[in-house]
Design a protein that fits this description.
The structure holds three protein chains of three kinds. Chain A has one domain: Cytochrome c oxidase, subunit III, four-helix bundle (Four Helix Bundle (Hemerythrin (Met), subunit A), Up-down Bundle). Helix content of chain A is 80%, strand content 0%. Chain A has seven helices and no strands. The longest helix of chain A is centred in the C-terminal third of the chain and has 32 residues. Chain A is elongated. Chain C is built from five helices and two strands; from the N terminus they run H-H-H-H-E-E-H. Chain C has a two-stranded antiparallel ribbon. In chain C, helix 2 runs antiparallel to helix 3. Chain C starts with a helix and ends in an 8-residue tail after the last helix. The chains are: A mainly alpha, B mainly alpha, C mainly alpha.
């Protein structure tokens, strides 16, 4: 994939922050406002519609809690991958990244089971406003999980070969952000009843 | 386009990767070179401008001569009228103003002006253009799907935009939405490249206040875009769900709220206008300094004002919604903030005038465009005051007064800003000078015609003529003012004809223009020290920066300019 | 190149593996608390401390703490240049601004001289349907 030499521009760092990391933080910044807009809209509706409390009571806190546990653990794996990368150990970093990715897959499987159950009970995306937000917000989050896993696999492969180890931290930052979004989605969708 | 930005020899730094002659496809179609990508954006923007202009031609002909067949189009039906008006607005903002001002000039200039060899992420740069091109294709495709193009106005308010039984363009509406969403993604990617490159990759010695103003403006614009587009992306997802899946996010009958969409849209929509305004002002700043041979008046104040404008722009959005049923107490708040934001912008224009004062002014074509920007934008800004005050807006909202106001702002931004920039940087981009006589004829034809289009529209708007109406003969009170509509349309025809002069000048100068040399305007900024056009990698050795960008007419120096890369206490090269 | 980046990383912070495990353990404890909190809330109220306040504090307060722990320790924000924290905080503030500007229209259904008739009608209809279904022991909430 790196068939071209990097421009000299990429190696400069007038801010003291490496360019890749600076860029990832700006990506996180723009993602905050995307999820923020969606969740702020949800909160406004939720607070304004008392009948949603009943709709929300049908979410399964144990599924949600399990998924939170899975993502927190995968974040741990991601930071352990970073730790290995900092010490130059690409192969260990790659293994931890695979673990993180595995966590993402487990998350998606739990979601799939959960959603199948809910849809079969008639709680579909068009059932009412609460469920529309539920599937949309968690769905967009899940898309970010999938995208993160794909990029993580690519970086894991590069790290296994000892290349581009600085990217381990970068995908970790993205992954932690995805985890933080879920940390807020969990109480918003599952607990506030 | 023969030598547009890359030549066959490569810079020293990639001598080691054994590149042989690149094919046309890899050099121009799949290039990662920022200059090529900048020009790809520019040419796409020009094509989209012609399409958007064609649309305005069709609907203005309909308005001036209702019911008659428009030459080169046919009879404009009501549904088609709506689609033309909608897509004209959408195209001009998202596929003309943004790509030309931010993506084209930003991509081209940022590495050159900071002394870098490319953007920090060249492949993401290429990806952003590819996504942008796909978004343009999807938008064009929306005209050819069953039902035709989306006709719900560029603001796409639900329930009209959410329900096919209201808008009658189910496929068009979704194609439109997907195209806009992809365009946002392209600009998010591009924005990250710009911000990171500017922050990190400056030439050694280039401090924050040595950065040319146009780059600051482009970066502030990118930051504004990134911070404001998020809620609208969320809203676009929700609208997509409403359109395609059948959810009711914005459907009042199902507990949804159409006003939420309006807020999501305008929370972005208002900062968006500053996203396009600031780069245009930046281009004007560069030009007036070069052609008044004078440093920018109070660089730091202009910079801080630009930041302040950006911040305040987040606090004014609901002035677009004064009559939408928002809480009147919020309307008070937004009136105050909107009136406040006029101050920093007016101040920036006055600082530009102060820059010109006492300068040694050369009225070249770029300078004419820059000066006309200041004049026309002042008119646009002042007329905005009537709209920002909620009391008068109750009358003016949704009339042609609004339309004339925003054309007196958007036209300077998108069209004058583009022409100013292209006539100024054409020599650098293509190595040849554009013809000055043709440039001036084009300028006067465009500007005079522009005013004759929109002053009648102010008058019509003040008389109560509403927007987005297909035929004013149906309104007895307004039917008698048809002469004004005919004047506006005739002026548009004149203006469109004059654009042929620009296109001819552009193409002719590409091949037959006088060779430009490195620095035909004797300007200070770093791009003028590279070859015209710069090779891949821009310079064999990247320059250092020793001073600010506007050291013109420095007392005691022989030359009236002092380039940024000349070491101190050395006489500048000729 | 990799050396340059790694070198920067050593400065940007590296704790021991045990440290990260400790943070993870704290996060799990907080997770359990945030699940138990709303369940036990009705039993915990006393004085002016109502059930919903307890739910809010445990569910959302803990979410904020968890997010902080992940951001500071896993993302190394506490060692990163301040500028990044300012950037992220600004984005969060913008979201608060958005909420402040929009909620008077979307969250509230009545204001100075206006009323959101459609929303109030929908709320009334839905609450009635829920009450009727609860009286009949059915599952409400999946029709519209």
């Amino acid at each position: 994939m790196s068939t071209m030499t990097r421009p000299i521009a990429t190696t400069r760092s007038a801010t003291g922050i490496p360019t890749g990391k600076l860029a990832v933080w700006w990506v996180i910044g723009s993602e905050i406002v995307i999820f923020g807009g969606l969740l702020a809209s949800y909160v406004m509706f939720r607070l304004g519609h008392p009948e949603w409390a009943e709709y929300a009571s049908h979410t399964n806190t144990w599924f949600g809690g399990a998924n939170t546990f899975v993502l927190l653990t995968s974040s741990l794996f991601a930071v352990l991958a970073h730790h290995a990368a900092v010490h130059g150990d690409g192969k260990t970093a790659a293994k931890w990244l695979l673990g993180t990715c595995g966590g993402g897959l487990v998350f998606l499987c739990i979601k799939a089971v959960e959603w199948t159950g809910e849809i079969q009970h008639g709680y579909t995306i068009t059932a009412n406003g609460f469920w529309s937000f539920y599937y949309t917000a968690a769905g967009i989050h899940a898309l970010h999980v999938i995208a993160g896993c794909i990029i993580m696999l690519i970086i894991a492969k590069q790290a296994w070969n000892g290349k581009e180890l600085q990217r381990v931290e970068l995908i970790g930052i993205y992954w932690h952000f995805v985890d933080i979004v879920w940390i807020f989605l969990f109480p918003l969708l599952y607990i506030a009843k | 386009m023969a030598e547009a930005g890359t030549v066959d020899t490569h810079g020293a730094h990639d001598a080691d990767h054994g590149h042989h002659e690149q094919s046309f496809v890899s050099k121009y179609i799949f290039s990662t070179d920022h200059k090529i990508i900048g020009m790809q954006y520019m040419f796409t923007g020009i094509v989209m401008a012609l399409i958007g202009g064609y649309m305005s031609y069709a609907f203005r002909m309909q308005l001036a001569f209702p019911g008659e067949s428009v030459p080169g189009y046919g009879v404009v039906s009501q549904g088609e009228y709506n689609a033309l008006v909608t897509n004209h607005g959408t195209i001009m903002i998202f596929w003309v103003a943004m790509p030309m001002l931010i993506a084209a000039f930003g991509n081209y200039l940022i590495p050159l002006m900071i002394g870098a060899d490319d953007m920090v992420f060249p492949r993401i740069n290429r990806l952003s253009y590819q996504i942008f091109l796909i978004s343009a294709i999807i938008l064009i495709a929306s005209f050819f799907v069953p039902g035709g193009g989306f006709g719900g106005a560029w603001t796409s308010y639900p329930p009209l935009s959410a329900n096919a039984e209201y808008n009658l363009t189910p496929y068009g509406a979704t194609f439109w939405l997907v195209a806009v969403a992809l365009e946002f993604v392209a600009f998010l990617l591009g924005g990250i490249n710009f911000i990171t490159t500017l922050m990190n990759s400056r030439a050694p010695g280039m401090k924050m206040h040595d950065i040319p103003m146009v780059l600051w403006m482009i970066i502030i614009a990118s930051i504004l875009f990134m911070a404001s587009v998020g809620p609208l992306i969320a809203g676009a997802i929700m609208l997509f769900m409403d359109q395609v899946v059948g959810t009711g996010f914005f459907d009042p009958d199902r507990g949804g709220d159409p006003v939420l969409w309006q807020h999501l849209f305008w929370f972005f929509g208002h900062p968006e206008v500053y996203v396009v305004l600031l780069p245009a002002m930046g281009i004007v700043a560069e030009i007036i300094c070069t052609f008044a041979r004078k440093k920018l008046f109070n660089y730091k104040l202009i910079l801080y004002t630009a930041f302040a404008t950006g911040i305040i722009s987040f606090f004014v959005w609901a002035h677009h919604q004064f009559v939408a049923g928002i809480d009147p107490r919020m309307a008070n708040v937004f009136t105050i903030t909107t009136l406040i934001i006029s101050i920093p912008i007016a101040e920036m224009l006055f600082l530009y005038i102060a820059t010109l004062y006492g300068g040694s002014i050369r009225l070249t074509t770029p300078m004419l465009w820059a000066l006309s920007f200041i004049a026309e934008f002042l008119i646009g800004g002042i007329t905005g005051i009537f709209l920002g005050a909620s009391g008068s807006d109750i009358y003016f909202h949704d009339t042609y007064f609004v339309l004339a106001h925003f054309h007196y702002t958007f036209f300077p931004i998108a069209i004058i800003g583009f022409f100013a920039g292209i006539t100024y940087w054409f020599p650098k981009m293509f190595g040849r000078m554009m013809n000055e006589a043709l440039g001036k004829i084009h300028f006067w034809g465009t500007i005079i015609a522009f005013n004759f289009i929109f002053i009648p529209l102010f008058i019509l708007g003040a008389a109560g003529q509403h927007r987005r109406i297909y035929n004013f003969q149906n309104f007895p009170d307004l039917a008698g003012m048809q002469d004004l509509r005919v004047i506006a349309t005739s002026a548009l025809l004149v203006m469109l004809v004059f654009q042929a002069i620009f296109l001819f000048n552009f193409v002719y100068s590409l091949f037959k223009g006088k060779p430009a040399g490195k620095n035909p305007w004797k300007a200070n900024t770093l791009e003028w020290t590279a070859d015209s056009p710069p090779p891949h990698g821009n310079w064999p050795e990247l320059p250092n920066c020793y001073r600010g960008p506007y050291e013109y007419s420095v007392p005691g120096r022989e030359d009236d300019y002092w380039p940024q890369d000349v070491p101190p206490d050395t006489a500048p090269a000729e | 190149m990799a050396e340059h980046q790694e070198h920067a990383e050593d400065h940007s912070g590296d704790h021991s593996q045990a440290f990260y495990l400790k943070i993870w353990a704290i996060l799990l404890v907080l997770l359990i608390l945030s699940i138990l909190g709303p369940i036990l809330a009705p039993h915990l109220e006393f004085g002016f401390l109502k059930a919903w306040m307890i739910t809010l504090m445990t569910a959302f307060g803990i979410a904020v703490v968890k997010a902080y722990l992940v951001a500071a320790n896993f993302m190394h924000l506490n060692i990163e240049k301040r500028y990044i924290t300012y950037l992220l905080t600004t984005m969060l503030m913008l979201m608060l601004l958005f909420f402040a500007g929009v909620s008077p229209d979307v969250m509230k259904h009545k204001g100075q001289n206006w009323e959101n008739v459609a929303a109030e009608a929908e709320i009334e209809r839905a609450l009635k349907a829920e009450a009727a279904a609860a009286a009949h022991g059915e599952h409400p909430g999946n029709e519209h």
